[in-house]
Design brief:
Layout lengths: L1 H13 L6 H24 L5 H28 L11 H7 L2 H18 L6 H6 L13 H12 L1 H26 L10 H12 L12 H17 L1 H44 L5 H26 L6 H18 L3
Length: about 325
Amino acid sequence: MHLQIKRTLYTILNTSDSKNLYSFADDIIVTFLIVLNIAAFIASTESLPPEKKLIVEGIEIVSSLLFTLEYGLRMWVCTLDRHYAHPIWGRLKYAITPLSIIDLVSILPFYLLLLFPGSNAFNLISLLRLLRLLKISRYSESVRHLGLVLYRKKDELIATAFAVFILLIFASSLMYFVEYEAHPDVFGSILDAMWWGVVTLTTVGYGDIYPITPLGRFLGAILAFLGMGIFALPAGIIASGFAEEVQRKKQERIVANLERTAKIQATPILGEIEVNSNRQPREITLYVENSADLMKLCIDTAKQKFGTAFESEEIIRDLAMHLYNEAQQKFPL
């Protein structure tokens, strides 16, 4: 009974299945609590009347207690996963996983403010409540996709950030030497010039710092054009990553459908082979040779039709198997 309850809770907390009423309800309730809690946090920065302030505080208390309960249940049932099977070390290993750390950090502000109500870091501790938004990654496929895209494109994004940093240092240093004599109160150091470089590269252009010499304005115009191109690179990288992720999901769905079809069609084909196993060796050899020729034809056809559409060779093999099964049914050897 104890193990059955644990397994049920593990399924509810760790799967997002719309067909499972309890799992679906857990997703909806936790997502609603996260959104409600963030809304209450934003509202708490306003000057509220006492009765509304009590409502906001009540939302924080209830949601924090429910998040604590959820965290405790996750720590209890995590040992059902073979990676965290040890009752002590397994739970410690689970506790340092990214999602578990997010769960812990999301409830820490509530208890820290209870323990240190007059702390000088009150605002910083309160700001940690915003990290509860990251909990939505457990329940939102879109957020998970964003995380995967950022992780898979991290090398390209890091290279882009490094290029921007080099350009910022170079442009700020050059502008400092060009503008220092004419504008020493504004471009008094390279650090001062870096603020100008940031707002110029990002095309924000606050106007609080700007060059006044002809050469400085010419360099500023060039940097502004470079900024539009440089800062468009991360957007293009992330957009291409999303496109690749969507394509990969489509491929996975195609493979899953093919696997289901292959399982359904495999039984009669295997039965036919078993029945034909009583044939003479020459007939069996001919049957195997014909099957091999048919499979080769299916593989060649799949590669010709879909070879450039898929990156994985396994998908081509699955498509070939699907063609083979259909050909076996329509044209028995």
